[in-house]
Design goal:
Radius of gyration of chain A: 17 Å
Shape of chain A: globular
Oligomer: homodimer
Order of helices and strands of chain A: EEEEEEEEHHEHHEEHH
Distance between the termini of chain A: 9 Å
Helix content of chain A: 25-40%
Strand content of chain A: 15-25%
DNA sequence: CGCATTATTGATCGTCTTCAAGAGTCGTGG
DNA sequence: CCACGACTCTTGAAGACGATCAATAATGCG
């Protein structure tokens, strides 16, 4: 891929963007996981969304934009400057779909934090990650590489590490998930989704694909 | 204002858009409050964001978009079709800023639900509403018309009505707010914001104004 | 091998939910 | 004009869910 020629890397833990700072060029994640986070002055923090392969960082249409969240690499990362949307109409459309999907995930996250129990939050998040990773072809045999520590899942679900640990144990004992050796499998995603009243994320009528497909 | 010639109205409680249904024309709220909500099959629901005067409903750049949330009128509403962004570059910029602000509020909402206590959530939300209503000139002497029932604040903060009621009482007793006759006053917004570690919402370097200013 | 990070489990505590009931307000129709 | 029902607000009591505190394994990395 042309854009990947000038790919860059970032070590786990590095901040790619800092809340309140100006946004320069939009970036595209090629490989690895990142998170958008909000921090409070007293040290509390909340993961606002996860960024996976094919996701964009800091695409804005207005002049002199400021970042509204900090973006941090959760794993070692490969990324590049996002190709300008003006190069092709299909890329422009892909960006629009990507943006819409991103918004949909934010709304889901809000509903998750506002109205689901701890167990449901965790299960729902793991299902969303399955769905998203499937879109970029990172799921094999229903399993995906899970690079996150339970501590990070706590930052995302608004829970404590201790309680996340208990909920993971619970999901394991219920045979809902298998999580070992850095890989996570949801045994019956359909039925788990049904149990949570979870609908698949759709932002278009058609079968539009997100940005990542253009680079697959 | 030209666009307001073909203004329409909606009664409180009416759905302007339904989750999963196709989005036709984008709408612009002229007067009144609406909410974007997510519902679960078992009856649980979560308010994902509030829509105030000057806010857009269903502006998308991709083809055949589906709504990712239900939009419901919280008060009687006046609205119109959103003028096409192609009519003027400044309108286009205003839409971009509006979109960025909307995203910022979603992120704040996530952090609020994930990491704040009940009292903090309520106070933080009331401060955000103050900030937003100020932008559209709906604040006088530090007070704004508060058309929401405590029940609705519960839907937004992820709490129960009962607990919202107790938190309102607490904020009242602490002299943080005065809420009577449908008007809400935050006695010392600065100090309350500081207490919460709340930063003002900024999405640009400059002093760009949201869409509503174009219609003020 | 030593240190830092991550996972795990127990015990106790507190915030928020749930359940229940009563009072106040408002619009509507008889 | 008043009675009624729907909604909103309010408060109490009990219980549950998740937080906090604390300690001990694993695991992995330099």
């Amino acid at each position: 891929m042309a854009a990947m020629k000038n790919a860059r890397t970032a070590k786990r833990g590095r901040e790619l963007l800092s809340e309140g700072s100006p946004i320069k060029a939009p970036l595209l994640i090629i490989e690895g996981w990142a998170a958008r986070i909000r921090t409070f002055e007293d040290g509390r923090m909340q993961i606002v969304s996860f960024l996976l392969a094919g996701d964009l960082i800091g695409h804005c249409d207005h002049p002199r934009p400021l970042s509204v969240s900090t973006v941090m690499a959760l794993t070692d990362l490969r990324y590049c400057e996002a190709p300008s949307p003006s190069v092709s109409p299909s890329l422009q459309a892909a960006y629009a779909v990507s943006r819409a999907l991103e918004e949909a995930y934010l709304l889901s996250h809000i509903a998750r934090l506002g109205r689901l129990t701890a167990e449901e939050r965790l299960a729902d998040l793991l299902l969303e990650l399955l769905e998203r990773l499937e879109l970029c072809g990172l799921v094999e045999d229903g399993s995906y590489a899970m690079p996150l520590a339970q501590h990070t899942l706590a930052d995302a679900t608004g829970l404590t590490v201790v309680h996340v640990n208990r909920m993971v144990r619970q999901l394991r004992h219920q045979q809902d998930i298998v999580w070992q050796d850095g890989y996570l499998t949801i045994n019956d995603p359909q039925s788990l989704a049904r149990k949570l009243g979870r609908r698949p994320t759709r932002v278009t009528d058609t079968l539009e694909e997100p940005v990542s497909r253009l680079f697959a």
